[in-house]
Amino acid sequence: MLLHSLVQHAESRQDAVPDYYQQRQIMWQIDLSSAGNTEPLIIDLRPAKGEERRTVTAPYTGRSGKNPPPFLLADSALYVLAHPGLVKSPDEEKVPSTSPKDISKARERHAAYRDMVTSWCNEHPDLPQAHTVAAWLGICTPDHWPDGMDQGHLVAISVDGQWIHDLPQAQHWWANKVKSTKSGKPGKSQEGFCLVCGQTGSLLSTLPVPIKGLPNSGMNTQLICLNQPAHYRAGIKQLGATPVCVRCGTKAATALNTLLADPEHHTRAGDSAIVWWTRNPTAETDMWTLDNPDPTEVAQLIDGLNHPHKGRDALAALDDAFHATTLRVNTNRVIVADWITIPVPELKQRLGAWFTDQQTWDGWNNTYVYWSVWRLALSGARWDKRKNKYIDTTVPKHLQADLAKAALHGTPPPAHILPVLMQRIRADHHIDRPRIALLRLALTRTTTRHKELCVPRLNTESTEPGYVCGRIMAMLEAIQRKAMPKVNTTITDKYLTTAVVSPRAVLTRLRLGARPHLRTIARKSEPAARAMENRMREAFDLLDALPAHLNAEQQALFILGYEHQRAHSARAAAEAIKAREAGKELADDQAADALPEATEDTNTTDNTLW
């Protein structure tokens, strides 16, 4: 199914890459003159620092063994110019190697390159560019190379500025050359039934095009590779037991490489790569919003979720299919970690549900916030307090790819993410909106008993013990900050680890310790102190008794309630600022939530609670 979809995509693209060609970084250009009366011009195309590298679509196929064959017209300097490679001289400068072994190897590779290019020139006697290239080969004696050139640098030949390998005569000749070498050993029948297209034709012994662009991929990473006895089927190795015709194998591998080179059709996710495409190449999928959520695009997806029959493309794309696959590499073999095919409208429904389930509210700015998959995955890492950032090397393995899979399939995230996230929060006490979004996502998609709590904003009517205890913790912290604007270490910093597990012991003590703070607040604003005390009493009254212990799910609700209360207070503080600027007198609730005005003699150490 994967190969069949890739072949369909290759045939539908208008900018399809020729068979056995691939995007490659070019570093040197040998420009020949059709007049034949000037020396070849060698142009350095290496990018300067900060510049984008120059790429061209050039001949390419997998090559290995003791004597790997050359590529037509565009190959490394080892083949094109017999470059022996750079080595360090006694004065630490890089100079061409003078080792007899390196020189002999370079000459052998160059001889094979000359034979191939000469063969192509002889088969196209009426082509002017072939005459020019043949004339250059006749006088070319490579023993001097430009400064900075190394044997691995890609060198391509042009005539009057036109790349020779882009000529149709070069593309057809190279394709036939590779097909003849990849269809099996001479004298053995390679005709059979192709499992991809369902037609009889010439079969491949190995896929002719390696896969490039995957994390940790090597020089010859194969999409299908059966070269060990454990992989054989009925004792048949390689593609003998998985028959794929030359046309389908070539198109599928070339299409996958094209997608991996296109930033609009793939993304990196740790050691994985997620590739997507549609049956109709012009169809809009909004897939990129997973990596870069745009508020306008996300709003459209959520609106489409709420109104499935609304919108100009609601029914227009029913016949179009969306394909996505997650790929990894293991010992130069491609691992298909995930594969999905769904209609484009259903994809948009799932993306809308994804952003709805991870939606968070920024109370200060009164806006909803959405997070990319990589940002959600990063929030599952450890938090470094000294550097004030996440340690990206501690992100749980495959989490980014697993979250993308959950978004595309409409399924819950990995089961381990909730306990891992709670362990991180208890350890580093860092609670930000990306972590709350990941927490909401895990709760919303793995539990159904607390749907009303897994909303982006505060629920003041809930009597869920964990959620209410989290709200109370946020209220107690707000009282402390109101009384001590310049406090360095809050009660959350000191007691969150214990409070989230055993709230009765901690919250009872902190409630007693809040009384001196309320008296301090009352000396400045008695209505504010009264409002904060009443608010906290109402929260305590929602519970018959404070729970002694909370289970894993209730601990997550504790953090959710804590953050919801903080966001609600932030919104009230923003409204209080606007009221002050307008010269209005603050109501009791506004006075309670208004940001405190710090004074120079305020103590920065809180000793009233213990």
Salient structural properties:
610 residues, alpha+beta, four-stranded antiparallel sheet, 18 helices, 19 strands
Please give the structural blueprint.
Blueprint: H1 2-12, E1 21-25, E2 28-32, E3 41-44, E4 55-59, E5 75-76, H2 77-80, E6 86-88, E7 94-96, H3 100-122, H4 128-139, E8 154-159, E9 162-163, H5 168-182, E10 191-193, E11 200-202, H6 246-260, E12 266-269, E13 272-278, H7 295-306, E14 321-330, E15 333-343, H8 344-357, E16 360-362, E17 367-369, H9 373-378, E18 383-384, E19 389-390, H10 399-409, H11 417-428, H12 433-446, H13 465-483, H14 491-499, H15 503-524, H16 526-541, H17 552-581, H18 588-593
Helix pairs in contact: 1-6, 3-4, 7-8, 8-10, 12-17, 13-14, 13-15, 13-16, 13-17, 14-15, 15-16
